[in-house]
Amino acid sequence: MPPTQNKTFRAKEDDLFKQLLQKYMPFWPLYLLLIILFLAIAYAYGKFTIPVYEAYSSVVIKDESKGLNESDMLQDLNLFRGKKLVENEIEILKSHSFISDVVNNLGLYADVMEETKFRQMPAYLTTPIKVRFKDPTRIKKAEKIPFVFNRDDRSVTIGKDNFPINQWVATKWGEISFVPNYKYNGDTVTRSLYFTIYPVQPVQASLMNRLKVVPASKLATVINISIKDQVPDRAEDILNELVKVYTEAEIEDKNQRAANTVAMVENRIRSVAGQLDSVENEIQRYRTNTGVIDISAQGRQYLDNVGQYDRQLEQIKNQIAVLDEVEKFIVQKEASSSGIVPSAVGVNDPSLNQMLDKLNDTQLEYEKLKRTTGENSPILISLREEINSLKPGILENVRNQKINLNISRNSFASTGSRYSAMLSTIPQKEKQLIEISRQQAIKNQLYAFLLEKREEAALSFTSTNKGDTRIIDKAYSSVMPVSPNKFVLYLAALIFALGAGIVWVSLKEGLNKKILFRSELEKLSSIPVLGEISYDSSRDPYLVRNDAASPISGQLKSLRNQLFFGANNNQYKKVIITSANRGEGKAYLSSNLAVSLAMTNARVVLIDLDFYTHEISTLYNLENAKGIVDYFSEAVPLQALLHADKVTKGLTILPVGASNEGNAEWLVSDKLENLINELSASYDYIVIVGPAFSDDVNIQAISHIADASLFVIRQGVTSKANLTMLLYNGHMEALKNPAYVFNAVKGRGWGVKMFGNGFGYGNNPGA
């Protein structure tokens, strides 16, 4: 901000402060009186008002979103811990059901009071009994039910009825039980006790309004609970009971979830056990019908058997092939005895091998001797006969072996085919068995899982006797009362006292229908305020002469100087003075102006044109003398109508005259203007006192004969509405050189007369 603007802003602030100080400071005695009064009221209020205390408690909520993680083992054991949010738990703590339980459990619907000399006090700690209703929902309001507790027989007397304690008794208010107050200290002081009963709903609403449940911070999971009450012990009991009800509800909810979970698991176990038994029976039937014990082992066995039979068949085929070669050799070589005998390798017959070996040896020997001996040699014949004798035996043996091998081959082929057929059915059977076994495995896993969860639920069920909420601070109350706070009470008394005084002053002046301040004139129109004349209780029309040293004389002379002596570049010779209504000081102002002008050795004529009040004429004892009316009506010479003041040299009075007839026409006639012109030739200054606008609006028609028009405004007398109407209708603008004179300005306030004296608050004296 530039320095010039900063200075201007500060100057406006200082000016506003000065205006407020000028406006309200004069009424300091009123503020002092109100301060004393309000402080006395505050003292009495603090003395006789029952103090209110505040109790506090705090709990930790295990919020899923804000930490407080448990170990895995605790989480596994605590299956029934619900998910919590601090915001939700706050609303739960303030719920109607919980508050209703607190009201019913503590019997807050029946308020026991102690009546003392000056006030009624809660008897929460001093009453020996408390009142409980069997059905609190049917309570109807009943006020001030006096009772007396009889210590001897431990009974309660209400009127003429006597009721034992700790028993349900029928009364006109409902079924009631009077129970001992465990907080009663057992003193023997006689007290005047009574109880008042209220329906649960209003008590519940009152408790909810007083209860405050807020989080400790945005990131914390701690909830702070507080409540205000006239009895600190009762406030503590309410908070403790609320936390107790909340914790019990939490445990009950966990128990209910646990019981439901265990029951569900048990039902599911029974269902799965039945399904598992059904699947096992189906497997049993399948194995029985298909002859399958262990399909994998049987499949491997079938596969081994088929392979074994195939190998045996190959061996038999090899043996048959060997035997075929042997048989072919024997059959082809029957006619000869030469050639190498084929081997019978692979044929498990020792006799055949021996015969073949013998045949081979014999043939070799035969072939060897044949080269050296003749064919008819007995040895060769003998060898040839031996060879011929061996061949039939070998051939028979070979053929028998072939028959046996063919039988074995057919048997192995048939068995192998059967095993092959059984092996081909293994995949289908295995698929079906896998499907059934899969169902069995699923049911087994589900059954094992449910058994495990049942055990976990059984373990967790034992931990549901404790809630997830942990109490940090049990309820404790403030040592000093929170209400009424004496410092705040007295400070409020001071503020209200000052505020009441300011409001009274503002309403008194702001709602006043009369003009009180110069600033109001300046707001209504642009007509200047030429001067302010302070209030003079004597209303001396000759004040400037009789008390020339008074401040008011100085104000009148200042007004004179501004009008006639050029103080504001004005040098008027003729001035007409009027007002909105009668009684606003035209005669007082005009007489003092005329006297002050005459005191300057000037020749001054004071003309009374107020045909309705004759104030100037009466002031100078000329009410019966001839004047302007006679001049107009009888053509009396002007010099015969002028009366010199006997005290003030140079001052001449022209009275109205004895008759008022025809004055309206004379004011607008040329005769008045001729009269003024004639007087102007003989006198230095002319002061004309005209009628008020409320009497004759023709005053605006003659203002042109003067150099200036003074409109007298009297503080607290001139109506804002009348002046506004004159301005709105253009009557004020019709006057020649109009200006206001603020007359009879009183000092504002009590005791400080400087404020508002002479200028009115909120105005620059030099304006």
Give a count of the beta strands, DSSP E runs of length 2 or more.
21
**Class by SSE composition:** alpha/beta
Oligomer: single chain
Residue fraction in strands: 15-25%
* Helix content estimate: 40-55%
Task: Please give the count of helices.
Answer: 20
Compute the separation of the termini in Å: 30 Å
Q: Main beta sheet, described?
A: 8 strands, mixed
Strand order of the largest sheet: 14-21-20-15-19-16-18-17
Low-confidence stretches: 70-80, 752-767
Give an overview of the whole structure.
50% of the residues lie in helices and 16% in strands. An eight-stranded mixed sheet has the order 14-21-20-15-19-16-18-17, with helices on both faces. A six-stranded antiparallel sheet has the order 3-2-10-5-6-7, with no helix packed on it. The protein has a four-stranded antiparallel sheet with strand order 11-12-1-13. A hairpin with a 2-residue loop joins strand 6 (155-158) and strand 7 (161-164). The longest helix has 84 residues, at 378-461. It is elongated, with a radius of gyration of 68 Å. The two termini are 30 Å apart.
